Structures are given as C-alpha cells and as structure tokens.
Amino acid sequence: MARTKSFDEDKALEQAMLLFWKKGYSATSMKELEHVMGLTITSIYNAYGNKRALFEKALNYYLQHILVRFIESLDSADSPENALKSVLMEVIHLHFNPSHPGGCLVILSILESEQHDEQSKNILSSALNLLRDRIIQRLEKDKENGEITLETDSQSIANHVTALITGMTTMARAGFSQKDLENLIEDSVVKLLNK
C-alpha cells in the first residue's frame, strides 16, 4: 500500500516560491528550503526532485497563482486604456503587497539568467512572451470592437508595456515610490494610445 504524504505539497511549494523570489535561485540554499518548507531534504527530493526541479515547479506555481493576475486584469478591464493601466498596476500590487518579497519572480530570475539551465530560461522567456501576446490579443479585440483605430500598432504597444513592466519592477526594487510608478503608468498609457 502506498504511503500518503503527510504535508501540503502546494503550501510547501508556495514557501519555496517565496524564498526563491526573495533571494534568487543561486542564493537560496537547500538548508533554507528545508526550513521554510518544513521538510527534510529527503522529503524535498522525493516530492519535488533536486533544487533545479524544485525551482521549476515553484516557477510554474508562480505563473499559475501570481502572474495569472496580470492576464485576468487585462481581460476584465472595460476599455483599452484601463486594460493597459490595470496590467501595469499589477506591478505595483505585486511589489507593495506585504505578503510578497517584492518585484517579480520571472523578471528577477531573468536578470540572473546565468544561473539557469535551458529549460528554466525557456519557462521564463515564455512567461514574458505570453504576457506580451495577451496584450496584443486584447488590443486586437479592441480594434475589432472599434474601441481603438485599425492603424493602432498592437505589437509595438505590447512591447512597450512589457518593457514598462520589467522596468517598473526594477524601479520598485530600487526604491521608487508607488506614486512615482502610478505617475509613470498614467503618462505612458496616454502616450501609447495617442490620447
């Protein structure tokens, strides 16, 4: 008869995600992972694999539970302008949420890309590309609905917004205020949509 696991795998994975998010892949030790996950190293290896495999599982957890909020805010907005504002505001919500380490795990991990193998790098770049592509889809839908002109360059705007997300994440980690970032969002969205 197979033994049932005596711990909450999702909860332990969430704790690993938060630690990788706070310290980065290379600075996170297995000893620290044992501590925050409340597991022995043997249990970690049995449930998740080695540190690299655990990081990739934690990264996927982040995509499914945290980064998805960017897409949800984009899709649920009532206008193209509010769609861009809301996806950019997620950077602020993410960074200034006291239950999060600040910044964005994807972007911070991309910045330490030399620490990652090809599979991790692919997950990271795919996440950023997915977000960019969903912005394009939203703007194309807005074109079809007549909310923005057919001449609007959806890809160019999506690239700018993706660059703003990565730049704002870095600015927030560097100590720029929430007000600074809110002002940047207001100015940028107006210029991007030519209003």
UniProtKB/TrEMBL annotation:
Keywords: DNA-binding, Transcription, Transcription regulation. GO terms for molecular function: DNA binding. It comes from the Bacteria. Residues 29-48 bind DNA. Residues 6-66 form the HTH tetR-type domain. This is Transcriptional regulator, TetR family. It comes from Nitrosomonas marina.
